[in-house]
Amino acid sequence: MNEEGGNSAITCTEYLTFPYKTNNLEKVCAFFDFVTDCDIPLYSVDVEIAKKASGIRAEYKDFKTMDALQLASACI
C-alpha cells in the first residue's frame, strides 16, 4: 500500500465525464490543476489491481467493475 496516498486514473474517468459531456473544459483543467497542486499521484490500473478487483466483484456481487477497480486501487 502506498503510504503517500494517491488515486487511480479511474478517478479521472469518474470525475471528468460530466465536464466533458457539458464541454466544460475549465472544470477539466481545474481537476488536473488540483491534482498537480496537491501532488496527488494517479496510478494506472495494472494486472495486480485487475486481479484484486475481480476478487472483490466475486465476493460482493453488487459492485460494478469501475467501483471494484477503485476499491482494488485503494487496497493495493
Apparent shape = flat
Gap between N and C termini, in Å? 5 Å
Q: What class do helices, strands and sheet pairing give? A: mainly alpha
Number of helices: 4
Low-confidence stretches: none
What is the number of strand segments? Answer: 2
Elements, N to C (H/E): EHHEHH
Oligomer: single chain
* Largest sheet entry: 2 strands, parallel
Percent of residues in beta strands: 5-15%
Report the average pLDDT across residues.
90
- Structurally, the number of domains stands at 1
Radius of gyration: 14 Å
Spatial ordering of strands, largest sheet: 1-2
In helices, the fraction of residues equals 55-70%
Account of the protein in words:
This protein has helices at 10-21, 25-37, 47-59, 65-75; strands spanning 7-8, 42-43. The longest helix is centred in the middle third of the chain and has 13 residues, at 25-37. The protein has a two-stranded parallel ribbon with strand order 1-2. It contains four helices and two strands, in the order E-H-H-E-H-H. Helix 1 (10-21) packs antiparallel against helix 2 (25-37) and helix 3 crosses helix 4 (65-75). The chain is mostly helical and 76 residues long. It has one domain (7-75). Helices cover 64% and strands 5% of the residues.
List keywords for this structure.
single chain, 76 residues, mainly alpha, two-stranded parallel sheet, 4 helices, flat
Sequence-ordered SSE layout with sheet pairings:
Elements (H helix, E strand, L loop, with lengths): L6 E2 L1 H12 L3 H13 L4 E2 L3 H13 L5 H11 L1
Question: What is this structure, in a nutshell?
Answer:
This protein has 76 residues and is mostly helical.
